[in-house]
Amino acid sequence: MPDKINIDSLDLNGLRSFVLQHGMPKFRATQIYKWMYHKGCESIEEMTDISVKDRATLAELCTFTNMDIADVRRSKLDGSVKVLFKLGDGEHIESVVLNDGDRFTACISSQVGCRMGCTFCATSQLGLKRNLTAGEIILQVKRLNELLAEDEYKLSNLVFMGMGEPLDNLENVKVALSILLDDNAYGFSHRKITLSTCGLTDKIEELFKMETPVNLAVSINASSQEERAKTMPVSNKYPLDKLIAVLKKLPVQKRKSITIEYVMLKGVNDTMEDAKRLAKLLKGLDKAKVNLISYNTGSALGYQPPIEKEALKFQEYLLNNKIGVYIRKSLGSDIEGACGQLRAKHDKSVEGYDE
Ligand code: SF4
Known about the structure:
Blueprint: E1 5-6, H1 12-21, H2 27-37, H3 52-61, E2 62-63, E3 67-74, E4 81-87, E5 92-100, E6 103-107, E7 111-113, E8 128-131, H4 134-149, E9 157-160, H5 170-181, E10 193-197, H6 201-207, E11 215-219, H7 225-231, H8 234-237, H9 240-249, E12 258-264, H10 272-282, E13 288-294, H11 308-320, E14 324-328
Parallel strand pairs: 1-2, 6-9, 9-10, 10-11, 11-12, 12-13, 13-14
Antiparallel strand pairs: 3-4, 4-5, 5-6, 7-8
Bound molecules: iron/sulfur cluster.
The site of iron/sulfur cluster (SF4) has 10 residues, from loops.
């Protein structure tokens, strides 16, 4: 008997092929989809408008993704919530809900760990354990919405900025995006979803072949190839000048922009020389806006946040060079839910584990 298939790891096209292959009418796929995503159903038996025969077939062939909430930590500073999930095989991942006024943004994970090796990022210390399935990506959104529903809130935005490099798991991420964007399922607008990458240029181009690409954020974090290769080894394979050249050619839709993420590390990439080089680098990238993110204090990785006055000078220089630039508020730092802090802390193999 072959392994059961995770029915919640199929998008509508995948589900249609699956039901047809097993002798069911095509419309079963939409029925199943609505049960799962509009009614939150996680068992075949509950799908009562599907014939008994087809329910028996589905129950025999399919299962649902198994993922439990193992821990919830709430920020006392800003209302952010960090959730630790235990996956079916015992691995753990984290997701964060960031509350910014009336917006609730889920920062979701795409991999257990990450193999990109950015030296300022806690997740990179785990290495890559495995990719998440589409079902595991989607279930984070569902479980976070269930948590928010206790206070009558719901997620308004999603960012793929949790654990992992989403473009290193592009096949599963594409299926998850298809489910998130589909009106028969979650119905998110493509404008409300942002995918953040450390710059895998070939995969960025592939992502932009989607019918309605989601927003793109690219972590640059340096103003020169030499500097970037020291903190982001991925730059050896995907050099900075080539990355910027690809970004310049992307067919970015009207009223959309590419976000350039720049985590400021004191004494590493926060000098006026860096500001000048960055302005030059981004010249001609008209659709770009820059997010300057202050590195979080309390990290065991040996970096420090910039001095506020220096960060403001950096911002001013870019503004004077007609580059849209914001200093982003870091949320969730007291629960280690801020940028680069996710590391599924239960994992005792990670240095500094102190529970
Ligand atoms: S910053 Fe992102 S790409 Fe880099 S190691 Fe961390 S999770 Fe991976």
